[in-house]
Amino acid sequence: MIHPCLTARRGNLVKQLTVRGVGKDLERRLRDVAKARGVSLNRAALILLRAGAGLGAPRHRANVVGDSLDDLIGSWSKAEESEFLQTIGRLEEIDPSLWR
Description:
Layout: H1 4-7, E1 9-10, E2 13-14, H2 24-37, H3 41-52, H4 78-87
Antiparallel strand pairs: 1-2
């Protein structure tokens, strides 16, 4: 018999699913992903489950092009950030000759 929480659906989403036997290494990875992406442990688990199942991220966020660089968010030191901003500074300058 299937547990009721697995059959009660809200749209295409299963309301609840319990996963047992999560080892310390997997818990650590879940926490790392959650912290790096600024999401809950539940969201991190969904991200890793979808990736492991070959499903990728759901495409319901119209304002997001992709998330392949998300792991880099917050990973730079202040010195690295400063160097990068200084390096791209010229890209912020407007060339008036291009706007005639």
